[in-house]
Amino acid sequence: MARLVLVGLPGVGKTTVARALAREWGCGVFDTDDLLSQAVGRSAPEYLRQEGLVAFRNAELAALEVALNADGVVATGGGVVTTSAARELLRAQMTLWLDCDDDVLKSRLGGVDRPLIGEDVGAALAQLRRERATLYAEVARVRIDASGQLVDVTKRARDAASAVQP
User: Fold this and answer.
1) What pairing do the DSSP bridges indicate for beta strands 72-75 and 28-31?
2) What architecture is domain 4-154?
3) Secondary structure of the chain: what % helix, strand, coil (to 5)?
């Protein structure tokens, strides 16, 4: 079973924080986008574009199931919470919601291939926030401020994970 699972919007730092925590804790780190890519033989964005959202969400759910059965920190794709089966799995985990202002997210997303973001990053992020905020809140035990330096965000996540009982 995973030690910690991170959810949140694209660009919030889930993978970066997961890697930092895994280094500190001496455990594995599992990124559902990476696991999905390994399973389908293509990058997550490429698979999404070629196979469509339904196939992508199914592959993402399978990747989440693999990640949750490992000893480590799990970084999820931003939209994993849109699948009810994934939300059910996430509620049973020590799940933290990393969140920060859209302006911070926009600055972090520059040049990254994100098919669901498109050209108008600000509008896309606002829409994703409207669609997903209640879903993140549903699965997460704590909402963490993910703005600022990695060392600070990692400390906030570590402290929250220690303070909240599974």
Assistant:
1) parallel
2) 3-Layer(aba) Sandwich (3.40)
3) 60, 15, 30
| One-letter identity of residue 163 | A
Over residues 27-33, the mean pLDDT reads: 96
Do 104 and 79 contact (CB within 8 A), yes or no?
no
Give the pLDDT confidence of 50-61 residue by residue, as tens digits: 999 999 999 999
Query: With left for phi above 0 and alpha for psi between -120 and 50, is residue 128 left, alpha or beta?
Result: alpha
pLDDT value of residue 115: 60
* 43 three-state secondary structure: coil
135-150: average pLDDT: 96
Question: Cβ distance 65 to 76 under 8 Å?
Answer: no
- Where residue 116 falls among pLDDT bands split at 50, 70, 90? low
DSSP letter at 141 equals S
Q: Retrieve residue 85's tokens.
A: 């089966």
| Cβ atoms of residues 80 and 93 within 8 Å | no
Q: What order do you get walking across the sheet with 142-145 strand by strand? A: 28-31, 72-75, 4-7, 95-99, 142-145
Domain segments of the chain: what residues? 4-154
Q: Given this model, what pLDDT does residue 121 score?
A: 76
Do residues 43 and 50 lie in contact, with contact meaning Cβ atoms separated by under 8 Å? no
